[in-house]
Write a structure and sequence with these properties.
4% helix; 3 helices; globular; six-stranded mixed β-sheet
Length: 652
């Protein structure tokens, strides 16, 4: 009955959007460069045209939902899942190829970003209105950016200083007491020098407790985020540089202190974070005819978090430095090579039960060869060798192949190894919100092989094009950090893998423009993710067995109105032990009205109002080992409505 109602609601929304108009919508045409490959498309979601499989989410795609930050940018994407890590801190995590987002390398314009202690809340640190596009690649990706990509890369493209001069503002508010103000404006100081300033302020202070368990459904949060970027062009020399300053305060825990086990000691969660980052890129074009260039790129970050989880205190002071030197050139027609090296330094000072210091310096060299026959046949082979001050030498080879025999069919294959260093306590300190004792091993490495096959079909159908994609990826771990709920009911242990761990993912998706202005996308994905926990090979906990998605988008001929709706069906899975959760659905929708300089949008998320009925277990005894807030598999809070306004001025 529930599923029938959902389908009827979704059909009604689609019918409303179809009935509004039945003619052409505006077309968004744009060129974007990704890993040296240029693609041109008229779609808001584009397939990558190079050897590496994946997709590019344009700004128009991001506008289809509220998209307040990176973690809320994938609601219409069939490949990436976003969920809460726990029901107390508001930490979110993405999943790609059925595995945790820690195996996805986070990039900001091809520079590694948000490492270590910044990972648990990184999805909230990137405001949606700042982004120009998001590039999601699958598999181990290129060797240029280090060995850390295992299931893929997410590369964020921010708004550029040398974009057409403009001023943008975004105001947002929702029924969960969240309010945001975003601003960005760029200035061309000369024909060679330009700058852009991006500002983000957020106040999410409401203490909502819709399920009546005495705990906030999500934490109160205040964030101030500022970024300033510069670009200089002087002949064959290019410079990019910028700084980011972020401060955030989170407070969660009990809302009704009389429900506490002890009225004198209500359970509270408090996190205070400061994040400071800077980057620079220097590029010298040596020979334009052969695409020869040399580039020096670097970024640095300071990240500090002071956290309290009930009686538990955790503080971390982290410093990261990354430097890359790269040379690229065409050897001959159809043949190119990239050579370079990276140095990465990570330092963490942690305070939990003891005062610990972890540091690692990794230096690596890589070589990548590409054969490109008119985009029809592409072979990209790369290998890198890295030396870690903590773990010694290791090698990561990667191979990507593309064959496009006709305009209708594209085939891809990939195989590669990825390897990353994990700081278990820093990357998973949200687990301290559990009543159990967190037992985490020290710094360790994770290593895995990833293999994938994919096919893309562009099928002419009724004078339009049906875009059909199918892909299969297999990931097998040699080394892995395993979060173990099974061995001891009073502990959560993060221990090295002892046994097998793997993931099989099969996905099919299709997009079709039913008529001008109206398009439908449908996708279905199967996950088989297993790992050895407490000596037994079992399903990875809190992972849905499948995901189904249908999205509909319609823009009127005058381009003044746009209607969007997305229905997700999430399959069931294992929680802990023999406990399982059932499948559930989520529906979101948005309506946008465009004016000359302003766009007004209203919408809703989780319109089906589905909520996990027990996101916090034994809420009445928060200081007992049976208290558990980290076994989250579904939505923590219910229906949410929102409204916002986007202002856009050019040549101000």
């Amino acid at each position: 009955m529930r599923t029938t109602v959902i389908i009827l609601i979704f059909s009604l929304l689609c019918s409303i959007s179809i009935a509004a108009q039945t003619d052409t919508a505006g077309v968004y045409e744009k060129e974007a460069a990704l890993q040296g490959v240029t693609v041109t498309s008229q779609q808001t979601v584009r397939r990558m045209s190079g050897a590496i499989g994946g997709s590019v989410l344009t700004q128009q795609e991001l506008f289809r939902a509220a998209c307040c930050n990176l973690g809320e940018s994938f609601s219409t994407n069939p490949s990436v899942d976003v969920s809460y890590s726990d029901a107390a801190t508001g930490a979110k995590q993405i999943k790609l190829l059925g595995l945790s987002g820690t195996y996805v390398q986070m990039m900001a314009e091809t520079l590694p970003d948000f490492r270590g202690a910044a990972l648990p809340f990184a999805l909230d640190y990137v405001p949606g209105p700042w982004m120009k596009s998001i590039q999601v690649s699958k598999g181990t990706s290129t060797v240029k950016n280090g060995p850390e990509s295992i299931t893929g890369q997410i590369n964020i493209e921010y708004k550029k200083p040398d974009d057409a001069e403009q001023l943008n503002a975004n105001i947002y508010g929702d029924t969960k007491s969240r309010y945001e103000l975003n601003f960005d404006g760029n200035v061309h100081l000369s024909d060679k020098l330009s700058t852009v300033l991006l500002l983000h302020g957020e106040n999410d202070w409401g203490s909502h407790d819709d399920n009546g368990d005495g705990f906030m459904d999500k934490p109160n949060r205040r964030q101030l985020n500022v970024m300033n970027r510069w670009k200089l062009t002087a002949g064959r020399y290019l410079f990019h540089g910028g700084v980011q300053l972020l401060t955030e305060k989170r407070e969660g825990g009990q809302t009704s202190h009389h429900q506490a086990a002890s009225m004198q000691h209500p359970y509270s969660i408090a996190l205070q974070t400061q994040h400071y980052a800077a980057y620079m890129k220097h590029a010298f074009i040596l020979n334009p005819d052969r695409n020869s260039n040399i580039a020096l790129m670097a970024n640095a970050a300071l990240h500090k978090t002071d956290a309290t989880y009930g009686h538990k205190a955790f503080d971390v002071d982290q410093r990261n430095l990354y430097v890359q030197l790269m040379y690229e050139t065409d050897l001959a027609p159809h043949h190119s090579i990239s050579l370079g090296g990276n140095v990465t330094h990570d330092y963490l000072k942690e305070t939990y039960a003891t005062h610990d210091r972890e540091h690692e310096t990794t230096a690596g060299l890589y070589a990548q060869y590409t054969y490109n026959l008119n985009e029809r046949v592409i072979a990209m082979a790369g290998v890198r060798a890295d030396h870690s001050s903590a773990f010694g030498w290791y090698v990561t080879p990667r191979l990507h192949l593309k064959w496009m025999p006709t305009d209708v069919l594209t085939l891809r294959a990939t195989v590669g190894r990825g390897l990353r260093t994990i700081h278990p306590l820093a990357e998973a300190h949200y687990l301290l919100a559990s009543g159990r004792t967190l037992v985490a091993a020290g710094m360790m490495q994770e290593a895995a092989w990833n293999m994938g096959l994919s096919t893309a079909l562009n099928i002419p159908l009724f004078e339009k094009t049906l875009r059909l994609n199918a892909e299969y990826y297999y990931t097998t771990f040699q080394q892995q950090a395993v979060i173990d709920y099974e061995s001891d009911p009073t502990e959560i242990c993060i221990t090295p893998l002892d046994g097998r761990s793997y993931s099989h993912t099969l996905q099919v998706d299709a997009t079709y423009p039913v008529f001008k202005g109206f398009s439908l996308t449908a996708a279905y994905r199967l996950n088989d993710v297993r790992q050895t926990i407490a000596g037994s090979l079992m399903e990875r906990p809190l992972t849905s067995k499948y995901k189904g998605l249908i999205t509909a988008s319609y823009k009127t001929p005058t381009e003044l109105w746009q209607f969007d709706a997305t229905l997700q069906m999430n399959g069931g899975g294992r929680i802990v032990g023999q406990e399982r959760f059932k499948a559930y659905e989520q529906l979101s929708a948005q309506v946008t009205r465009e004016f000359r300089y302003v766009a007004v949008y209203v919408g809703g998320e989780n319109l089906t109002n589905f909520r996990q009925h027990d996101p916090i277990r034994n809420a009445m005894t928060p200081f007992n080992p049976s208290f558990e807030s980290t076994l989250v598999w579904g939505p923590v809070h219910g229906r949410m409505l929102y409204a916002g306004l986007r202002l856009h001025l050019e040549k101000f």
